[in-house]
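Dear colleague,

Following up on Tuesday's group meeting, I ran the structure prediction for the three-component complex that the binding team flagged. I've pasted the input sequences exactly as they went in, so you can double-check that nothing got truncated or mislabelled along the way. The structure tokens for the whole assembly follow below. Feel free to forward this to whoever is handling the docking comparison.

Inputs:
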Amino acid sequence: MSASTLFLVIAVIAIVGFFVGRHRALATADGSIRRLHSLPQYYGSHVAVLSFAPAVLVLAVWSIAQPLVIGGSVQSQILPSDIPEGRDISLVMTEVRTLADGLSLAVSSGDMTAAEADNAQTFIGDLRDRLGALGVALGGDVRPSVLAAAQSYRSATATGDLIRTVLVLALAGGAFLFAFRQIAPDFRARNTVERAVRVILIGCASIAILTTVGIVLSLIFNTIQFFKLYPWQDFLFGTTWSPSFQGASELGILPLLWGTLYISFVALAVAVPIGLFAAVYLSEYATPRVRAIAKPALEVLAGIPTIVYGLFALLTVGPFLLAAFGEDGVLGVNWMQGGTAVMTAGLVMGIMLIPFVSSLSDDIINSVPQAMRDGSLGLGATKSETIKTVVLPAALPGIVGAILLAASRAIGETMIVVFGAGAAARLDLNPFEAMTTVTAKIVSQLTGDGDFNSPEALVAFALGMTLFIMTLGLNVLALRIVRKYREQYE
Amino acid sequence: MYDDIRLAERTDTMTDVKIAARNVNVHYGDNHAIKDVSVDIGDRAVTSFIGPSGCGKSTFLRCINRMNDTIDICRVTGDIELNGQDINDKSVDPVQLRAKVGMVFQKPNPFPKSIYDNIAYGPRIHGLARNKAELDEIVEKSLRRGAIWDEVKDRLNAPGTGLSGGQQQRLCIARAIATEPEVLLMDEPCSALDPIATAKVEELIDELRQNFSVVIVTHSMQQAARVSQRTAFFHLGHMVEFGETGQIFTNPQDERTESYITGRIG
Amino acid sequence: MTDLTQARSLTELDPRTKKRNAAEKRFRAYGVSAIAIGVVFLVILLWNIISAGLPAYTQTSLKLDVALTQEEVDKAESAVVKTTRYRKMIEAAMVAALQDQGIENPFSKSRDLVRMLSTGAPATLRDAVLADPSLVGQTSQFEFFMSSRADGYMKGRVTREDLARDKNLTPLHLDVIDRLVDAGMVERGFNWNFIFGVDASEARPEQAGMGASILGSFYMMMVVLMAAVPIGVATAIYLEEFAPQNWFTDLIEINISNLAAVPSIVFGILGIAAFIQFGGGVMGIAGFKQSVPLVGGLVLSLMTLPTIIIATRASLKAVPPSIRDAALGLGASKTQAVFHHVLPLALPGILTGTIIGLAQALGETAPLLLIGMIGLVATSYPEGFVSGFTEPNSAMPAQIYQWATRADPAFYERAWGGIIILLVFLLSMNIIAIILRRRFERRW
């Protein structure tokens, strides 16, 4: 039985269990609910949970482990000569699996008899065409060792699936009977069901940890893979970025980091003053009516998807800046060669970050106690003096935290730089020059060819790792500062 | 250590009127908080406002230096004159007014800055000192007059928020007198303090009378009796009675004042 | 010093106060201008989107009578490249139409004449014939899309000067088009194909539509709804109502707050490594391959999870403890108190948070680029409802990205037009969220 059919069978057993358990509970209490410890449906749920959960758990673990175990044991049958030059064994394993699945498909669709499939070596030359007719695409002609591996993969999988089916069904049935026999009027069914609910909740809460673990693992494994192919010193301290899929790439991260930081700096230089003044005005001066209009208007900027900003940078801001600062531009300065530049991306990213800075700062400024303002106003300070000398210094740690969060956003932003910043990696000071960033290069290295094993593709994971560490560090720092600040006034 | 009600020394001459309020009304949105209050506050004397919670005494106090301007829904009508000038006049700058009419709040609210900077803040914004030496002098003088100099003179650069509650409140009083106001408004300055700190602040208020006109809002009748020369009793937004403190406490004219003083309402 | 203050009158401002008041005014002006700058940017952005995107919603087409004979159709259907003959039919029909209208045909080769039509026109004709064989043997009127250049000319985007270096269209074509407009054969109409049609190859911007990618986005949102919402709500319930104060709870909390700040592109890397490399490659799970809405939806689910958790926790927190106490006081278990009383009261807030999370996921582009939602021309609708999850497709933002990279003004127009659709979706989701919040908001 396939995993999905098994799952359905278990689900049916559980549903039956619910009604049977409920009925049994009422029967043991002679139809009087008051004699039961819990409501009847809890007895039903008890049977359902017990027959469902362990069986599904075993099914899941088995289904994850089986291909790994079988794949590992079959791998030894592959001859080193079958592995194409410069490729990984995983590519051949994919072929083995496709072939094994193809044979199973052929048997189940009646195109081949089971015996034929077992003796596929005899017509190995036709195999590709016959499977191709069924929609199973194989990369090249089937090699004998690959077919042998596929055969043993197929038979091992068949045995494994059989054991799985028996085991899982036995577990579900056994648990069903066990739970059923437990039912008695003073059995505390509600407590076990609630415990199960709690376990499910904890399981869901652990997904957050799993996600982080998944991110870290996927970054680390591939980064290690990359550093095996490319020296880490050259990656971290290299000043040239020129990947070429023909080999002899130079993959130094410094120009990308420089571009990232430069663009983020421009973005913050736009967003921080505007956002901060907007926040001060909204929280200290604006009448409720102005606030009710201006605050949502700014927040609309935050709700616009980044792809829109990207297009805005590429098609509107870039040409506009070029018309002003480029050759034959209005200002006649000829600083800019093309529409994509640090300025373009930075400016647009700054616009995107304005609401981010302003709403965070707004919250923080509002949490400065009114007594502090009264104290200053009562001494005859003007409103702006109060803000500059009392409110903002008091709110400073929180505002610094907000700016760090904005910086982390800027560093991780992708779409705007993909469209606005350009593709050339440069270590340059001219903000009207095209530069590129870590995120933009992750996109360009990982889109297109599906081969993840060349250093040119793997470098994207190392870049992702760098990005992850940078944003995580900034975020942890910012959260710590903001939390300290909150405690101060609570 | 005090008698039941120890009446403050009566040296009240009540010749100069510092602040004259006539028919003051205050609305918070639809709520009529102060109803037709008229009062004369004397120079170089302590005037106390007493009354049950929510009777409008703090609101009225905040009218005197226009702190109510900072609340959007608050409307003030009527005349309040300081030295014969209408403070609600359009041409009056509330900032200048507040430099003359200082305020101390219910909860001590030192700025999260050093003790020195807390005191120097007012003189700095009003430009009272020409140089650092003058500023140092003002700070020291204010801290002395605030009766806290001896406790903080060795740690002027420590944050003001690190002081105890009573010290913080005296720091705030010192901060208020550093700008050389003519009137000092105090909104329940001792409500957050323990009895010992309260006694120190009360002593301080009595000394301040030499130079300033002091208006104090208080919940404690004993405190009003101890520190003030004149007392106004507020009830439900009305000013019920106003007169010499001794008079109010020993021989109140109004029934409500008597009920309050004897503890029947409040 | 006392003299100094005494000397000040309340109504006469001394120079210092004047200066301070001026500074106050300036400061206030900075605030106003900051708000104004923000709002101006917003207005420019929206105006830009609308003015550049609206033309995508109209399309110029040519009404043409084409005579279909059985013989021609049979010939066409038996050829290897089936559309060639249909093109010939259109050519003949056009030449005839010009003659009928008395319009001079400046082209010696009729093939040059039909350049003003979309290269997809023959396929349009063929599809019509296959859909309704009774058309054969008759002369009937068809509407063919004009080519993107001709369409651009009608919309004012393409001028005669632009065509000087253009290989596809010449000013001579434009003369013919002008006459055809006079004859009432060329008209601009609403372009339903843009909303419901599928993407087209680079040579045919006029035929590209958002339909398939809207469906792709819809499937991904279904995945998010089925994966992120239950998990997120369950996590929030656990953390807010059940979790004891211990290191494990702390670990979860730290994880959630940090995940909220991980750049979206990192989730794309996770998608490649965990779902496509590991899940599809090593594990051999059939649905986990590139460009598949299932994978895209799962990646977006992980990304949206923190938003949903944080919103749900906030609305659970807003339910006062007295409700829980009341339920517990009646002898309900903790679980019953939470599921019978707290959760229903928190539901509007949870819903609002969910919708906002979905809106965020809907507009997200970067992770989709990595899992291959681009690079695929989504030229067909999925075959069945269920297979829509696992058939390669695009998504709205990915489709917009793709058009924006095709470097043809006609595609830029489509990209802006696509943004309008995307924003309409986002706007409606946010409006629903606001209405929900307004209607069910409870103050305790």
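The mean pLDDT of chain C is 86.

Cheers,
M.
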